[in-house]
Amino acid sequence: MDNYNLVEALVSHMSDIDEKQLLLYAQMANLVNLILQLPNIDIKEIAENFSKFACNAHTICDSELRSLGTGLYPVISIINHSCLPNAVLVFEGRLAVVRAVQHIPKDSEVSISYVETAASTITRQKTLKEQYLFTCTCVRCNKLGQYDDIQESAILEGYRCRDNGCSGFLLRESDEKGFVCQQCGLIRNKEEIRKIASDIKALSDKALKCSSSGNLQEAIVLYKNIEKLQKEVCHPFSIILMRTREKLLEILMQLEEWKEALAICRLTIPVYERVYPGFHPLLGLQYYSCGKLEWLLGETDDAIKSFTKAVDILRITHGTSTPFMKELLMKLEEARAEASFKLSSREDSYITL
User: Fold this and answer.
1) pTM for this structure?
2) Smallest Cα–Cα separation from 178: which of 188, 168, 186?
3) Parallel, antiparallel, or unpaired for β 80-81 and 111-112?
4) Rounded CA separation 233/166 (Å)
5) How many CA atoms lie within 13 A of 242 on its CB side?
6) 276-353: which CATH topology?
7) Backbone φ, ψ for residue 200 (5° rounding)
8) Residue 353: which pLDDT band, with cuts at 50, 70 and 90?
9) SET domain spans which residues (predicted)?
């Protein structure tokens, strides 16, 4: 940290923290004092700095948004949060870079998202309150409780109609005995959903243990069973189902089960397109993953389409001069060259015949 004055200017939210957390910060400050053994050390200031770090630090990620650590960037901390941000924070090594993802008029505020935006308003609000100690009042959060917000929350984190041909979402009945499809009116029994949810929870616990212990083959079987059950109760655009498929994709990639991985990756794309804005880096990265799998499996034309979609997004969020983007652009050019060669070879064979 080159300028400690910037740290001093950060908000600590000490008055908003519960006693249990305050006690933890005090214990951590005392531990620092025991280790450093410096004269005139200010225990209270150290405790406040821990609080400042907790609610002002950012997760440092690589170009594919995999977490590497946590860093305090006081200038970046000045930028406010929005659940519908006009900019994105990415890292190039230890350098924090903020890039606009849409036109920002002069004198307008720049905003980034502090949390995962693919979530219901209630979930986002809860995460922001617990981690950053404030209540968001952005344009998305201001819709809390309105019909559109209730519908979106029910689709993202709620249940589906029991009629497989219906794309409706469910809301609780007034008597709390079940859920009513808002499209066709069919009622789904609460106990049926509770039983399936309980089975999913039990399987999820087992799958996590298998995955953590390296038993990937067993984990795959369990996650496939979880996916099957979730498809019975979750809306097709459910982020809960999406997260299960993300985990399946991750393990299938580790096991080099490329065909299955591509099938799962393709299932996630429509959900990503719905839950993320058009220029969100996670959407671009999912297109990139899909393209790499398609190219590996010889589906060159599809790979070109996926790479092109990835480039269109990631050149905005990541720039064009980083090693990551240079590699992506090179893959796109190589795929185009391969497609051109295949087309030329087919034309030559027709001429020969």
Assistant:
1) 0.91
2) 188
3) parallel
4) 13
5) 22
6) 1.25.40
7) -65, -40
8) low
9) 8-115
